Sequence to fold (301 residues):
Amino acid sequence: LLFPVSNLCGKCRPRDADLLQPSLNFLYCSLHQTTPCSQQRAVAVLLSNVSLLELLQKVLECTWSRSPPSEPAYLSPEDALLCSGWLLVASLLLYQHRYNTEVHQTLSVDLREVLNAVIFRKKKPILLLVSIMQFLRTVLRQNFSSSLLEIVGQNKAQGATQPQPSPQDAALHPLATQQVFSLVVSLQNLLVHKDFLLSQAVVACLETLVEYLYVKNQDVALHVASQPWHRFLLFTLLNGGQKSFLQPEVLRLMTLFLRYQSSNIISQKEISQILQEAAETNLAELPEATSCALHLFLCQV
Fold:
């Protein structure tokens, strides 16, 4: 079915949302819900379809050209298509890298637009933000070096007067230091919404960003991980209810701060409180996300 569905997608236009959205979802599920052997073949089939990749390029570009909805929570058919497009592209990047699949057509993405979508949000629905962050996580993990992806819009020369990037910016390329700080503040603000799906995506994005920074410039990474605002954010997330520390986003944030030794954010007192709550909890009844987060936290401790 991959052949006819991917060929059908290649013949569509981005405005054919009713047909494209379930088709892209089918391609996405085909990549994720199959055996590793079949997965490698599926990636090769999709990446050899130039028309499909050209269609995905147009879908991604529609993200920046569409007017934001009046209500951020409203997911229109067009926004649903954008979500499917970003998730499928993120998956193609992931598996192309894993299997070193041959690329017949590259995708071009403006990194400034991707970052601005998260930094400024502009009334984007939560699911679209989550999809874009999933893409951002993938390119961060791959160090912006995928043969399937061309990053544009960063540090292009504009004549002889173009200033040289600072050593810090050069180390973080293609990100700029100011972009990193703006992104971190925006991720913190998004966490305060306390939406489960959004919180999981935000914490995962923050984890990947700090990992990327640590490889590029340890000073910047440790500076980001030790921001005093993180402690205020933790107190905001802790709602004072029973087992308040045993929230997956709180546990993952605590794990992140432990990993980068941010002693000004998490103290021995908080660690003891988490251990005490875990000891008094029936671990078998914890949701899977919480159980996984607690496991990572205990391993880090």
User: Anything to note?
Assistant: Residues 155-160 have pLDDT under 50 and may be disordered.
